[in-house]
Amino acid sequence: MKIIKVKDTQMGGKEAFNIVKSDIENGAKVLGLATGSSPITLYNEMTSSDLDFSNMTSVNLDEYVGLKPTNEQSYHYFMNDHLFNKKPFKNSYVPDGSNPDAEAATSAYDKIIEDNPIDLQILGIGRNGHIGFNEPGSPFDGKTRKVGLTESTIEANTRFFEDEKDVPRFAYSMGVGSIMKAKKIILLAYGENKADAIAATVDGPVTEDCPASALQNHPDVTLIIDDAAASKL
Ligand code: GLP
């Protein structure tokens, strides 16, 4: 794993943007995208750049079950707001959280991933080492599936909702196996509350107890992290 240490999220966004830009210049056509606060500075760099994404495809990691794209808390809404409304892609895919039929929603998404192999995947990380919504215990060969969120993830995500009880308990998430198929991966992490997860990702055993530790087996991963997130390395 390559580690780029940055002084703050602004610098992290710039470092990540430089990789995205050079990948696109080298022919990348499909970006795997993530939600959460960590990729926001990257999306700001992308929207203020002169890069054109109108020939590209994006495939997002996950979506809450039960939320429509028009719901302000949905990941679909987040992506429209932070990126797609300003820089449209040719096609942008997010799992269909409004489809209550998990089998149909997840198999349709696997087909999308298969048809659009990801050149560059952007990831954040949960405090418990989750990637996408693959919580500890998720299979390393997993495909898209309906997952239950852990208490720590619900608590971490409560900040985006008016009330803890409004946080959805389930999500559709790309699996660890699908994430590992991306040609290149950038993981962004900032702040002290990510330090344990980063230490387990980089130095810990490769175990499903820390989903991000699977990345040790990937040939092209770059971690962009600040000093606080790197403090336990
Ligand atoms: C959610 C998302 C993850 C994201 C994580 C961390 O759980 N499903 O994809 O990495 O939050 O979010 P943040 O970057 O806000 O810390």
Automatic annotation (TrEMBL):
User: Which gene is this protein's source?
Assistant: nagB
GO CC entries? cytoplasm
Q: Where does this protein come from, organism-wise?
A: Companilactobacillus heilongjiangensis
The record's EC number reads 3.5.99.6
Query: In the UniProt entry, which residues are flagged as the active site?
Result: D62, N128, H130, E135
Q: List the CDD domains hit by this protein, alphabetically.
A: GlcN6P_deaminase
The organism's taxonomy opens as: Bacteria, Bacillati, Bacillota, Bacilli, Lactobacillales
Keyword Coiled coil attached: no
**Domain Glucosamine/galactosamine-6-phosphate isomerase span(s) in chain numbering:** 25-218
Q: What is this protein called?
A: Glucosamine-6-phosphate deaminase
- Gene Ontology BP terms: carbohydrate metabolic process; glucosamine catabolic process; N-acetylglucosamine catabolic process; N-acetylneuraminate catabolic process
Catalytic activity, reaction form? alpha-D-glucosamine 6-phosphate + H2O = beta-D-fructose 6-phosphate + NH4(+)
